[in-house]
Amino acid sequence: MSEKNFETEAIRNQMERSQFQEHSTPLYLTSSFVFEDAEDMRASFSEEKDRNIYSRFSNPNTTEFTDKVVQMEGAEAGYAFATGMAAVFSTFAALLNSGDHIVSARSVFGSTHTLFTKYFPKWNIETSYFDINNPSEIEPLITPSTKILYAESPTNPGVDIIDLELLGKIAKKHHLLLVIDNCFATPYIQQPIKFGADLVIHSATKLMDGQGRVLGGVVVGKADLVREIYLFSRNTGPALSPFNAWVLSKSLETLAVRVEKHCENALKVAAFLESHEKIEKVKYPFLISHPQYEIAKKQMKLGGNVIAVEVKGGLEAGRNFLNALKMCSLSANLGDTRTIVTHPASTTHSKLSSEEQLAAGITPGLVRISVGLEHVSDIIQDIDDALML
Ligand SMILES: *Cc1c(COP(=O)(O)O)cnc(C)c1O
Question: Less crowded by CB within 10 Å, the N or C end of the chain?
Answer without folding.
Answer: N
